[in-house]
Specification:
CATH topology of the largest domain: Immunoglobulin-like
Strand order of the largest sheet: 10-9-12-17-14-15
CATH architecture of the largest domain: Sandwich
Number of strands: 19
CATH class of the largest domain: Mainly Beta
Radius of gyration: 22 Å
Distance between the termini: 50 Å
Structural class: mainly beta
Order of helices and strands: HEEEEEEEEHEHEEEEEEEEEE
Strand content: 35-45%
């Protein structure tokens, strides 16, 4: 009788959950997000770069339809990074593993429930190097109220939140870069030409027309903000600092942690972390740089600092906010020292907000699977 009971409980969970529907159209485009003097062929989502954020609530039943509208013979798929896919592994979006890649002119609907998960996630393409640009935030809130207000979600109260999505950008088409990686000439990745923050950057040199400048995030004085950092990266490990503002780490990969004070945030491919910042009593118009630098990069000509991985906190009067274009390149906050690296950063000291059963760490494996690989 146990199995029918479990099935009935699972059915009730689905019956009581909130349905949520999204459609993503994958298309070809020429873009120039770092204001370089040339655009490159890539894929984008819903005619925009960066891709739109998807917002949902814990235990929502989600139907995500991915439509391949690419105008050449390119297949695609969308992976939902961090979603457990309990009882729905076929909806994980990994082409060649959990599904066939979506052919041009076709679509695929991924149906799943966000079972007992909340926090910061993201979605990205899972074919070739498409994830350079086919990537977007996926935020799961604890409740519908938190979804509507984007405040006070989870155990920590705050007044507002911002998403900071860090990604890499190459001055090369998606197709040329993939050909290079698959060729005998590939020995190592030389690094991206730019680091983008929410799809924006300013590459040094001659700037293109219609440059959007660096990304900025509006804050008000004497308030608490949650910054949801997403490492939508392929290779790099970044160190993030904010001038004049310390941070508290409160989330690692969609799991809340006990607050941990940090001066800088380390984030790499696929990681998602949230920090709290407390704004000061600064006047409207005050700007504070958000800076990134590479870790573990030993190039003597360009040791650590990224070409354009910057943004700004902008203090505003909520009654008088105007769009601006920030082109000024900030000075690094900390001198780069390739040997000044803490193994594991602070993560070994960070504790989960809700402790799990420690016995699982000492459990004996039920099965041992050995894979022998050869070239």
């Amino acid at each position: 009788m146990v199995y029918p009971l479990l099935a009935f409980v699972f059915y009730l969970a689905w019956a009581q959950a909130r349905p949520t529907n999204f459609t993503l159209h994958i298309k070809s485009a020429l873009i120039n997000p770092d204001c370089f003097n040339q655009s490159y062929a890539v894929l984008i989502v819903n005619d925009q770069f960066p891709a739109p954020a998807l917002h949902m609530v814990k235990n929502d039943i989600v139907h995500l339809t991915v439509r391949n509208d690419v105008d050449n013979n390119v297949t695609t798929s969308i992976h939902l990074h961090g979603i457990r896919q309990l009882e729905s592994n076929w909806a994980d979006g990994v082409a060649g593993i959990t599904q066939l890649a979506i052919l041009p002119g076709q679509e695929f609907t991924q149906a799943f429930q966000v079972v007992d998960q909340s926090g910061t996630f993201y979605y990205h393409a899972h074919v070739g190097t498409q994830d350079d640009t086919v990537q977007g935030p996926l935020i799961v809130y604890e409740s519908e109220e938190a979804l509507k207000q984007h405040v006070s979600d989870g155990p920590y109260p705050y007044d507002g939140e911002h998403i900071l999505k860090w990604s890499e950008w190459w001055h090369q088409s998606m197709y040329d870069r993939e050909d290079y990686y698959m060729s005998p000439a590939f020995t190592a990745d030389g690094g991206p030409d730019s680091i983008l923050l929410n799809g924006q950057g300013v590459y040094p040199g001659n700037l293109s027309e219609n440059c959007r400048g660096f990304a900025y995030f509006d804050v008000e004085p004497n308030k608490v903000y949650r910054l949801r950092h997403i490492g939508a990266l392929t290779f790099r490990l970044l160190d993030i600092t904010i001038a004049g503002h310390d941070m508290e780490l409160i989330e690692v990969d969609n799991e809340y942690t006990e607050p941990y004070p940090i001066k800088s945030l380390e984030i790499t491919a696929g990681q998602r972390m949230s920090t709290l910042i407390r704004t000061g009593n600064y006047s409207a118009g005050s700007l504070f740089p958000i800076l990134s630098q590479y870790k573990y990069r030993f190039d003597p000509l360009n040791p650590g600092y990224t070409q354009s991985g910057y943004g700004y906190l902008r203090y505003v009067d909520p009654k008088d906010k105007k769009d601006i274009c920030i082109m000024d390149r900030p000075e690094p906050l900390m001198p780069y020292n390739a040997t000044d690296v803490i193994p594991g950063w602070v993560l070994p000291q960070v504790k989960p907000f809700v402790s799990g059963d420690a016995k699982i760490l000492n459990a004996t494996a039920d099965y041992t699977i050995q894979l022998n690989m050869q070239q």
